[in-house]
UniProtKB/TrEMBL annotation:
Signal sequence, renumbered to the chain: none
Protein name per the record: RGS domain-containing protein
UniProt domain RGS: residue ranges: 1-112
UniProt cross-references to InterPro entries, sorted A to Z: RGS (IPR016137), RGS_sf (IPR036305), RGS_subdomain_2 (IPR044926)
GO biological process, one term: negative regulation of signal transduction
Keyword DNA-binding: no
Matching PANTHER family: REGULATOR OF G PROTEIN SIGNALING (PTHR10845), REGULATOR OF G-PROTEIN SIGNALING 20 (PTHR10845:SF277)
Keywords assigned: Signal transduction inhibitor
Organism: Panthera leo (Lion)
Keyword Lipid biosynthesis part of the UniProt annotation: no
Length: 122
């Protein structure tokens, strides 16, 4: 999650597991946290809500009802931290569920192989 190459490889793996929306949601939350303009925060929060939180979204992430209720209450005046609890819940889900499978996947092994080949070349 710390490097673009690592995120891209993990995202590719999540795509094969039909759970890419978890990574997309996490990345969208990271972008929202960097924003300072209130109008843009509101626009981005609404987009994230419609894309990942709304039960009508085809990319809806799996959140418990408590977190969903807090988000719904705060959507009237969203801040750049409105999705922090949800983001943590999704990060934890990826960390416990998807990431261990990723570490054992051919995609991860190929990434390690290509990185070790590049370091030998350097």
């Amino acid at each position: 999650m710390l490097t673009p190459a690592g995120r891209n490889a993990f995202r590719e793996f999540l795509r094969t597991e039909f759970s890419e929306e978890n990574m997309l949601f996490w990345m969208a939350c990271e972008e929202l946290k960097k924003e300072a303009n209130k109008t843009i925060i509101e626009e981005k929060a609404r987009t994230i809500y419609e894309d990942y939180i709304s039960i009508l979204s085809p990319k809806e992430v799996s959140l418990d009802s408590r977190v969903r209720e807090v988000i719904n209450r705060n959507m009237g005046e969203p801040s750049q931290h409105i999705f922090d609890d949800a983001q943590l819940q999704i990060y934890t889900l990826m960390h416990r569920d998807s990431y261990p499978r990723f570490m054992n996947s051919a995609l991860y092994k190929d990434l390690l192989q290509s990185l070790s080949e590049k370091s030998v070349e350097a």
